[in-house]
Amino acid sequence: QVQLVESGGGLVQPGGSLRLSCAASGSIGRIYLMAWYRQPPGLQRELVARISSGGTKNYADSVRGRFTISRDNAKNTVYLQVNSLKPEDTAVYYCNYNGPGGESWGQGTQVTVSS
After folding, report:
1. How far, in Å, are 6, 15, 36, 95 from residue 85 at the CA level?
2. Could you report the per-residue pLDDT of 6-65, keeping only the tens digit for each?
3. Nearest Cα residue to 48 out of 40, 64, 39, 59
4. Most CB contacts within 10 A, which of 39, 52, 67, 112?
5. Number of alpha carbons in the 13 Å side-chain half-sphere of residue 32
């Protein structure tokens, strides 16, 4: 069982940046996928970025070039650096684990982009 705790959200102006963190605990497998999803107000949850245990990264077209997913294996932490933020990036951002032990979700962290 993997538990995920997210942090780093906040209120920023358009063009601003944040670094979201997802700290994982529990029995993390050797082969897994870690991902960031987001859910804008009134809309469905969507995949933003993911990274495999082998280091392969994927991004949604809407964030490619602005967002960067990374990890620190020693700290069991996954990050999402979000740059050049736009109002349409406003959402609750969720961390996700999929691997041995099943699927886990974080509680979400709010990112609000507004003037």
Report:
1. 19, 5, 16, 19
2. 999 999 999 999 999 999 999 888 899 999 999 999 999 999 999 999 999 999 999 999
3. 59
4. 67
5. 22
